[in-house]
Amino acid sequence: MSFEESPDTGLRLDEIMSGAWSQAELVDALQEIADGVYGVVGFGVAAISVLRDNDELEIVAVSGNADAREELLGKRRALTTLEADIAMADWWGPLCFVPEERVIDRLEDPGWVPDVVPVDDPNAWKPLDFLFSPLRDDVGDPVGVLAVDLPADGLRPDQERQRLLQRYADYSAKAVNALLARERLTERLRLAETARSIVRTASAQLDLDRILADCQEAIVEGFGAHGMWIQTFEGGGVRGHGAIFAGEGTEMDIPADLVEIAVAAAHRCWDEQRVAFASRRRDPVKDILLPDERELVLDFVDRIGVVSLLFVPLGAGPECLGNLVLTRTERDHEWTQVEADAAFDIGHDLGRAVLNARLFQREKQLLEEMRELDSYKSQLIKTVSHEFKNPLTSILGHLELLEGVELDAMGGRSLEVIARNTNRLQRLVADMLLLSSVNDPSRPLDPRPVDLLEVLEDVHEIVGVQAEARAIKIVVDAPHEPVCALGERPELERVLVNLISNAVKYSPEDAVVAVQLARTGDRVRFTVTDQGLGISRNDQVRLFDEFFRSSNPDATRRPGTGLGLAIVKRIIDRHAGEISVESKLGEGSTFQVTLPGCG
């Protein structure tokens, strides 16, 4: 039995629709429906149009006459023309019929017109007769049109053919609605993925306003929303729960009681890992709001001219960080579960972005405080050092005047003590001034090529006297050719002096201090190894802090300012180098410095 002869055409149409899930399959289903109108109902041309977003009707399926198919398929016309057609039509039940004489009076472009001669019958079909069925959605809005032409018998259809045609129109409406829903879903999922991608990209941004501005348009378009706003909770200098970002630098003016409701609802949603809806068009299911809270929210929804809200918590890990609100108006359809799930994913992505911004703000604030403190400390050290310098110079001058004066034994010892401690204070002042200088951000490094081999030879001569006095041997392992580093020579010389003199100071008599200088790739390595007291693991943690002295009593008995290694560390940092230490208490220490090489 052929399809045309089927006793139950509806069964065949159900089979067509049951397999139509993808967009392409739905278009194929519409074509089969048009083919059915052509083959079963008996019209030479059947065309199905779909309403597009720009309020134009696009013909997506044509069956029958080849010339008609070539001219009509893909053609568009304004939705307003359909409204005009309906206004002049005779209603044959749900079908609309516009006779030729009315079409001639109105139509500027009649479109495709069949080249036929009407049959000799009072009920004859005329070339410009127009029979169509508007296709509507569940709320009665137009979504498309099923139009026919060229009845096989040349007559305007009787009630039986009208009934059969309307049956195909009903299936056309189902297929068109399914096609439009599929297209909307496909588009929104694509835009939602775009929005997620933007949010992930925005995660690299560390300014919250920039993050929200980057993703707002894609989120609104992706979800077919009328608008949106984002509320972030207090923390780390980021917007508090009284500031609500609505895009383009604006903030929503929301009553305080609603703000508090939103804060509590966001935390409940995040705890339950879900979104919430607020709409008079849908009954609350497992509502996140209490009844009185819900009524306050719905009253607010009415005031701002929307009909529904999709409420999405923002968070990262266990912490709820804010909420995202998407709105829709009366013209928009209600939120679907697919959209809710996609929005919840956005909430996770935005939550991570908010957390990153918050952490950045905290780190930035802490860094600024540390810089201010460091600047204050440097200025204090510099000021105190200068205040010490002049009196010390005066004391030393008077000590020199007293060198030729005859004093008793006690007076002589007192002068020696004064001179020794004055010299110690002078070294402390010099170290403090140097530390202030290398910490000064207003004094940038002026790097130039420095031959460290030449510097090491000069330092060896300086420290060698101190080593010889205690029978300590300094063994140098260095190449014969220059070893060049980029930096300022006085500062690099101070690094070598401090490290080698420390090794000598903390080594026992008759010990060996090994010094190695070498080039490794584009870096220069300088190493000092002693056989001295060694440094405990606890002391190594604070070894490069200003004024730190070892907890080892044997070390504290030896003179020092506690600034030598701090100066070394600051100089190495200024030169983009690294310093490390390996040591065990009682077994000596090894300090290794690496610096950028040159040449």
Structural class: alpha+beta
CATH class of the largest domain: Alpha Beta
Shape: elongated
Question: Approximately what portion of the residues adopt beta-strand conformation?
Answer: 15-25%
**How many helices in DSSP terms?**
16
Helix percentage range: 40-55%
Mean pLDDT: 81
- End-to-end Cα distance, whole Å, is 93 Å
EC number: 2.7.13.3
Subcellular location: Cell membrane
InterPro entries: GAF, GAF-like_dom_sf, HATPase_C_sf, HATPase_dom, His_kinase_dom, HisK_dim/P_dom, HisK_dim/P_sf, Sensor_HK_Regulatory
Catalytic activity: ATP + protein L-histidine = ADP + protein N-phospho-L-histidine
Offer a concise description of the structure.
With 599 residues, the protein is α+β, with helices and mostly antiparallel strands.
How would you portray this structure in words?
Strand 6 (130-136) and strand 7 form a beta hairpin. It contains 16 helices and 19 strands. The chain is elongated, with a radius of gyration of 44 Å. The protein has 599 residues and is of the alpha+beta class. It has four domains: 9-184, 2-Layer Sandwich (Beta-Lactamase), CATH 3.30.450.40; 186-363, 2-Layer Sandwich (Beta-Lactamase); 365-438, Signal transduction histidine kinase, dimerisation/phosphotransfer (DHp) domain (Helix Hairpins, Orthogonal Bundle), CATH 1.10.287; 448-596, Histidine kinase-like ATPase, C-terminal domain (Heat Shock Protein 90, 2-Layer Sandwich), CATH 3.30.565. It has helices spanning 9-18, 23-41, 66-72, 79-88, 100-106, 159-202, 208-222, 256-272, 291-303, 337-402, 409-438, 452-469, 489-505, 537-541, 553-556, 564-574, and strands at 43-51, 56-64, 76-78, 90-92, 95-98, 130-136, 142-151, 227-232, 244-245, 276-279, 308-316, 319-328, 448-451, 473-477, 484-487, 512-520, 523-529, 578-583, 589-596. A seven-stranded antiparallel sheet has the order 3-2-1-7-6-5-4. A five-stranded antiparallel sheet has the order 9-8-12-11-10, with helices on both faces. Helices cover 49% and strands 20% of the residues. One of its GO terms (cellular component) is plasma membrane. GO terms for molecular function: phosphorelay sensor kinase activity.
